[in-house]
Design a protein that fits this description.
Layout: E1 8-10, E2 13-15, E3 19-21, E4 43-45, E5 62-65, E6 68-71, H1 79-91, E7 97-102, H2 107-117, E8 125-129, H3 140-143, H4 146-159, E9 164-168, H5 175-184, E10 189-192, E11 196-198, E12 215-218, H6 223-236, E13 241-244, H7 250-259, E14 263-266, H8 269-272, H9 276-291
Parallel strand pairs: 3-4, 3-14, 4-7, 7-8, 8-9, 9-10, 10-13, 13-14
Antiparallel strand pairs: 1-2, 5-6, 6-12, 11-12
The structure holds flavin mononucleotide.
Amino acid sequence: MSSIDLSIELAGLKFKNPLLLASGTVGYGYEISNYLDLNQIGGIVTKSLSLNPRKGNPPQRIVETASGMLNAIGLANVGVEEFINEKIPFLAKYDTNIICNIAASSINEYVECVRILTTQEEIDAFEINVSCPNVKEGGLIFGNNCNAVGQITDRVKSVSTKPVFIKLSPNTSDIKDFARIAKDNGADAVSAINTLIGTAFDIWSKKPKIKNITGGLSGPAIKPVALAKVLEIHRNVDIPIIGIGGIMDFSDVIEFMIAGASLVQLGTVNFINPDAGFTIQKDLTGYCEQTGLDKINKLTGTYILN
Ligand SMILES: Cc1cc2nc3c(=O)[nH]c(=O)nc-3n(C[C@H](O)[C@H](O)[C@H](O)COP(=O)(O)O)c2cc1C
């Protein structure tokens, strides 16, 4: 038994380690549970939920790129009712935090989803997705507009009995302005970043490889962008940050924490090494032992810029 403390406290919640599984990359937990013991991770962020079920975009919805992937799933999900009846009972068996990610086409829909779901005691927090690049309504229309992000945060907070994290887009001018407005309206943390808009063409048909034309770029290709966004927020706004983008191993996690993240999320890596959550956690302990760090939470924001 190691004496290293990997636990993190954030918004009144205790996470056994800084590792969360990112929304959309592990379904509702069941999908990865044969490969990873969900008891080993700090928390799981569920696939974005909308009030009613959504089919998402027509295929092709995913394509591999250099050091990453493009996806345009279009928020396919089971909707709030089926989530409560079919998905929560499975997740409730695990000793980990359940963070329910919400995406919606209107401010009222965000509020309605949270109003219903906040009564579920197994849900520990909400992550509000105002940054999906792959839907026509909602998503980035909100995520690109500071007033909308402020309003959504304020309205969701007014009905939520749980902490609220706002998931920010990198496809904006100054991410710090969005983090600030989220904080000013009561957000408990911000998650950064969602995917970057990208595309790819088939050179023979001259058509986009993705039916939606553009998709969201994720994976190692976006890590430097994500780190810069986390740093920008940390240097300008006093709010806990959940770092996301291209994390593949423990050293990426350490980088995000140095840049200012308190927690991190594993996304695309789950498609490559579905047990990454387990290996990374072991390697984090190794890093702490090697560097004489007793508590990993001491790493957050320890950058030395000159
Ligand atoms: C296939 C796929 C589906 C995704 N679906 C969602 C989603 O429903 N809601 C959301 O907030 N983010 C979604 N994301 C974004 C991820 O949660 C994460 O922010 C992004 O992939 C960057 O992290 P990564 O580089 O580690 O994958 C999705 C990403 C992928 C690859």
